[in-house]
Design goal:
This is Branched-chain amino acid ABC transporter ATP-binding protein/permease. Residues 8-255 form the ABC transporter domain. The structure is a single chain. The chain is an alpha/beta fold. It has helices spanning 46-53, 76-82, 99-104, 115-119, 123-142, 158-171, 188-203, 215-221, 239-243, 246-253; strands spanning 8-17, 20-30, 35-39, 61-66, 69-70, 84-86, 176-180, 207-211, 224-229, 232-237. The protein has 2 domains: 1-83 and 174-255, P-loop containing nucleotide triphosphate hydrolases (Rossmann fold), CATH 3.40.50; 96-172, no CATH class. The chain has 10 helices and 10 strands. The structure holds adenosine-5'-diphosphate. Residues 17, 20, 22, 40, 42-48 line the site of adenosine-5'-diphosphate.
Length: 255
């Protein structure tokens, strides 16, 4: 089940685009409740790795297990229903919807719209609506977004938009959260807030994997770091171990 074994297990994963090998025999394991950093120079395969894990790309070879099962060939919507959520490097919020509506669209309907509730319509419909609004309120409050509930995302500062994206990912109550460069475009104060948000998400038992270029954030936040270069894992370990690896220093100087 999802409560036993690693949160994510990637085994001999290769992803090719024609003649280009974007990921070359990548093996890595993320344990439950960990905050894992994925770093590496541009073009090293980080986003491709996320795209394979989240079902947007099929592996050319190798396996991916996560959210309690083999997910090598799972579709993105299946992974979302199974408890995986992700954010994107470029924000993908619904611009025609308010912040509240952005949260409402991803709230878990599976536990609400039962036959029994609709059998006593309209009571069921109303109580369901009430429950969804209350849940949206809870999420907005948790992420400090209550004041922005009725605004449209693009009218808000970029740092707030990034926070909305994390709140929306968390609204579906995932067990595994993938963050693609969550600190990109944030100022120092916002990076500090992001760090607290990610820690509190982990404290709720959610496993977090993040791609990040802000090395200060990665070093202070992640328990373990995986370093990719040219599609291969060149180092993995604690922040101190990784920082002391000659291959890592070389890969970064060569970027
Ligand atoms: P990173 O996120 O570390 O910057 P990427 O995963 O975006 O690296 O890219 C790794 C390599 O794969 C790059 O050479 C990139 O051009 C290539 N690549 C990524 N996605 C595709 C795609 N859909 N089609 C062709 N090549 C791709």
């Amino acid at each position: 089940g999802a409560d036993s074994g690693p949160a994510l297990e990637i085994s001999h994963l290769t992803k090719r685009f024609g003649a280009l090998t974007a990921l070359d025999d990548v093996t890595l394991t993320v344990r439950q409740g960990e905050i894992r950093g994925i770093v590496g120079p541009n073009g090293s395969g980080k986003t491709t790795l996320f795209n394979v894990i989240s079902g947007l790309y099929r592996p050319s070879a190798g396996q991916v297990s996560g959210v309690g099962r083999d997910i090598s060939r799972a579709r993105p919507y299946q992974l979302s229903l199974a408890g995986m959520a992700r954010t994107f490097q470029n924000l993908r919020l619904f611009s025609q919807m308010t912040v509240r509506e952005n949260i409402l669209v991803v709230l878990d309907r599976s536990r609400t719209s039962t036959v029994w509730q609709y059998a006593v319509w309209p009571v069921g419909v109303l109580s369901n609506e009430h429950r969804l609004q209350a849940e949206a309120d809870r999420v907005l409050k948790e992420y400090g977004l209550t004041a922005f509930a009725d605004a449209h995302p693009q009218s808000l500062p970029y740092g707030i938009q990034r926070r909305i994206e994390i709140a929306r990912a968390m609204a579906g109550r995932p067990s595994l959260l993938l963050l693609d460069e969550p600190a990109a475009g944030l100022n120092g104060e916002e990076v500090g807030q992001l760090s607290s948000i990610v820690r509190s998400i982990r404290d709720q038992g959610v496993t977090v994997v993040l791609i990040e270029h802000n090395m200060g954030l990665v070093m202070s936040l992640c328990e373990r770091i995986t370093v990719l270069a040219a599609g291969s894992v060149i180092a993995e370990g604690s922040p101190a171990e990784v920082a002391a690896t000659p291959e890592v220093i070389e890969a970064y100087l060569g970027d």
